[in-house]
Amino acid sequence: MNTYVFGMGAAGNKATLDLVELKVINSDSYALFNTNSGDIPRDQHSKFIQLESEFEGGAAKDPAVGRAAMQNYLSDEKNVHDLYNSIPEDVDFVSIITSVEGGTGSGATPILADYIANVLDIPVHLFVFIGFHNEQVGMNNTIEFIKRLIALSNVTIHIIQNDKFNNAPTYKLKEKEANKYVGTLLDIIMGKGRQESTQNIDDADAYKLFTTPGIMGIVNINCSGRRSKTDMNAAVVEAFDSSVEADYGGDAQRLAMILNASEATQAIFDDELQAVRYYTNNNGGPEEIYRHIQNDGTVNEYCIIVAAGMSPSETYINYLLNERGKLQAANQRQKDANETLLEKLKSATTQNIANIADVGNKKEENEPSFVTEKTELPTIRKKKRPLSGGSFKINGFNSSDSDKSIEKSPMNYPPYPNNLPYPNN
Q1: Do residues 2 and 91 touch, judged by C-beta distance below 8 A?
Q2: 277 touches 192 (CB < 8 A)
Q3: Residue 259: partners with Cβ closer than 8 Å, 6 or more residues away
Q4: Which residues of 80-100 are buried (b: 16+ CB within 10 A; e: fewer)?
Q5: Residue-wise pLDDT tens digits, 343-384
Q6: What b/e sequence results for 339-359 when a residue is b if at least 16 CB atoms lie within 10 Å of its CB, and e otherwise?
Q7: Torsions phi, psi of 362, nearest 5?
Q8: Nearest one of 210, 133, 141, 205 to 171, comparing CA atoms
């Protein structure tokens, strides 16, 4: 399977360029969307697609700005034809890579994914980076984005949690590891490493599996050295516990097991393992199960589990809401502490001024008196400007709400122009 990649916003741009460097995709298989040309390296300007923003150089972490920028882009006939013609005819699916805490990626991505999947009729894989839950606006944007994911149709979604890359000590290195992980997922989807065997997933089955809409989970299980079913189940549990992907709904429509192992290992890996039960415990089993069994002759034995067509986990949504609540509480505690400190400083400053005044009012005996003229200082008029901060409301979603749950809601995008339903050249 072949893909064409659109990197969306600063994080998506960096991830896409990392995929080129890792040789996951080649140099003619990607483009970079952004509202800020400053995020684009000079040698990549030929790959840059400018989204016009109401701000100078960026979207100011406001998803509404990103949405408006993408809607404006798609309302231009030339842009639509350029977009369509940029995707090669032999592409099986389009990949869109984005983070959700900024304004460009979180705002523009759902609109582009919806347009390519439902207007251009090309399957879409959406790779979403969830950030570090360390600032309020970012958390609001994350929850808003997840709400819009639920409303998307005909899109395959991968949710990757950057803070789960525990082997990387810094934010920057965690982001690098997350980018590499997207490369690993794309390699699996595109079939790298799969060999012809007596029991295999053919091209038609692979296409059906990997273009299933909904959330897709992929887990790579290390099978080397496992000599019993108990050992194998332990490997499965270990793989799930260390997964960097978001929790899933456990209601997969399609399930695939890609096993690369010796005959001895194959004999202890069957359908009764914990992996199958984990992915299918909500609806009694997936509609279809695919198996690919091979032995490439190396000592690296593994099993890749692919679960397709899942819904977002209610547990994960509640986790995000809880994280936002904890962050709001921490911010309030810090605000209260700052106000208390400020009051103490004001009180101390007032007392110091009073003490200085008392000292200045004490005159030594025979000290002469002086009369000074009062000097009028010029008045400086402050420019009025709008206040920043606070909550905001986008398409009926209030960022200050403490949502108990997130319900499926319509995207409410303005209709695409009637004369641009499907470009022909």
Answers
A1: yes
A2: no
A3: 223, 265, 266, 269, 291, 292, 293, 294, 302, 303
A4: beebbeebeeebbbbbbbbbb
A5: 777 777 776 666 665 655 555 555 544 444 444 544 444 334
A6: eeeeeeeeeeeeeeeeeeeee
A7: -80, 120
A8: 133
